[in-house]
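Colleagues,

Please find the record for the two-part complex below.
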Amino acid sequence: MSGLEVEDLCIHYGDTTVVDRVSFAVDAGQSVGLVGESGSGKSQTALAILGLLPDNARVSGAVRFAGEELLGGGEAHLRRFRSRRIAMVFQDPALALNPYLSVGRQLAEVLKAHRLSNGGPLRRRIVAALERVGLPDAERQFDRYPHELSGGMRQRVMLAAALLDEPELLIADEPTTALDVTVQAQILDLLDSLRDEMALLLITHDLGVVAGHCERMLVLDQGRLIEADDTLSVFRAPSHARTRELLDASRGSVGAVADVPEPRRIALNVNSLEVSYSLSRGQTLFAVREFGLSLDAGETLAIVGESGSGKSSLARAVAGLVNPTNGKIDFRGEPLPAGTSARPLNRKRAIQLVFQDPAGSLSPTLKVHDILEEPLAIHEPRLEADARRRRIFDVAADVGLDDALLDRYPHELSGGQAQRVAIARALVLEPDLLICDEAVAALDGRVQNAVLELLKSAQARTGLAMLFISHDLSVVERLAHRVLVMYLGRVVESGPASQVFSAPAHPYTRALLAAVPRPDPLNPGGKAVLSGEAPSALTPPSGCVFRSRCAYAEARCGEQVPPAESVAADNNRHVAACLRLHDPELNGPVSAPPAERR
Amino acid sequence: MNTERSRGRPLPPLVRSTLAVLLAVMLVALLGPGLSPNDGVDARFDRILSPPSLDGAHYFGTDDLGRDLFVRTLEGTRMTLLVALVASVVSLVIGVLYGATAGFIGGRIDAVMMRFVDSLYAMPFIFLVILLMVVFEQNFLLIFVAIGAVNWLDMARIVRGQTLSLKEREFVAAARLIGVPTGRIILRHIAPNLLGIVLVYLTLTIPQAILFESFLSFLGLGLQEPDASLGTLVAGGVSTLETAPWVLLIPSSILFILLLAFNFLGDGLRDATDVRARRSPSS
């Protein structure tokens, strides 16, 4: 029982209570998940433990580690604990690393600060620490700078720094939220393997992560601890209604996907599209290559891929924000000019886009009402004031925006409200095609579900076609009729959502699906099938772009770009681009969950 | 960065008190000379360098020509504020138009326009001003031109940078997707977001202009007798520093208060319009 004990912790900013009488304990060697929506106070709790809150925070209560009180002891007292006995890693490793110091120097600083520099040659010990966290080619990484590393590698460096002193407790604040799902699985596995005797306090919004990696879980809601129990018990029988809501939200309690209306009408057809950017030194980055898709009215096509797969470039090319370098985009049977300025007004009206960052896509100086009015002012200037006002109120009601919010500025809205405004602005024009570029990625589980519901009902009402760009497969599952998987600018697999999810054919799709954490402690998902990260789109592998990470790659994969083939002979809707698609070996072990999971 | 965020909220106390000080100084400078029985050009050799007194309403004393310093100081303050205002407006208009155009058009035009700014920066302005004064003789207008010409460069750079980053923001992309024409995008979506930073920068430009005018006048390149600005008054006071310190101290104190107030105002407004500074903690 010599671990961390938090007792009646309260945090106030002025009159606002952020954390309200929270008590919990993390025993030695235990892994505990701290979950809650944004604003629930989970990060504040973590920061309070190590005395890292801003000066205007008022903290009361008790935080004891191995029997010693941490609160109110002053900086010198806390320094004896920070990173020596309690280490912390943060969400964004890019912000936590000093950009001006090489990786080796940063770790050396830690060692020097702890006066540990006399335990053998510094360089050798640091390289050993980097190897321990699975950083490939650790010797070479020693002299590199943070910006030369990928996100996953940076998080490994942060872990190496945190673990240098063999802390007894590691606090990890959303350590994988900024990473791709396949990299997230690797980092979480690494955390598990490094733990040995170390206790872990894992702060996350993702119940799937907790299900797979924590013995106990704590649920925070509006600053109050509403649940603290074994992970399994909480998932089986949550005692608090809010916990149940969170669990339901994470399991995606969105209704079934409605059928595409018949008769089918083609809304969008993209052929051999190429989007490239010329960089300095004469380099060209191909974000999208030989890309094709077709989309019917009333249908939702999800484009899935990790960062750098070119999915956003595709969305922007279709929307007209980027000019494709090659290829053809047909909209309702007519060729669509590249670039918004070349498109006639009625074409602009027909294609709308919802961005990832809801607040960033709304003009900060305009009120919600004015934001919703602008599209009408442009496209229906003859509309009378009364009719216009009615349209605005109607669309606001459609997306579930309270009338009172129309008088607010974007910064006075929550993330979910702001995204509703962005969607309302797109819908007020009654578009035929709605492109959603990671439209729910920045939202909490419950809000995410509500927005997905909203998009679905808008589709059912108006029959619009939707191009839904996402990295999050669990979101896609709840919404899409068809799925298209991208890797380094190319399509690797596409087909009806039910088929792709139940019988993924391409090794990449399988790895991606296996890596998704599931909110189920008995079958948590989150398996790290792939190692490493996607290579830079500047230097993609020859032939099959996936072969550098593929367990089944052969020599011929490097020679030929695999053509898209039907997965099953009698089904030409589900296609994948893999040379070994029909190879029995490929269709063997990976689709079944590997047994060696801890 | 925008002014709308501060709408409806009281300005910070520092900003409010400096605004009060500035308004008071301006009011006195405008009305004061008319209320005094003396005038600033009337040289009276019977009261050379008399110390401040209520006698004869010489509240600030007299200078080495026996002129009333109260009136001269207030007239000088008025002149200094006028120079600062005109110079700031000149730099505001040129700087904002130039910077926003360069930033929004971008590409080669932006590069050419900004290299022009760079080359102007490279010019030694003091020498240029001295040269201008020698060639065109001393001209009241020239001071405005010289000061405005220095100040608009900074403004242009700041506005251009801000426009460049605003242009890439998603709300501008969203407006383009809706089909909002370019002119309307600039007016409705970009300009209001520039307002905050421009306002702040303007209040920081004013003290620069005041200082520069005083500096030129102190060197004897600015206003000429009998016109006075705070700079010429300070320059005149230096020679009598030992016998009549008030001739130097009073105008320099007013100059000091003005500069301090404008700087406080600028800093205060910057804090008030900085969104990030007032964001509440979130977890």
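The interface with chain A takes residues 2-5, 169-171, 173-181, 188-189, 192-193, 275, 280-283 of chain B (CB under 8 Å).

Comments are welcome before we finalize the supplementary table.
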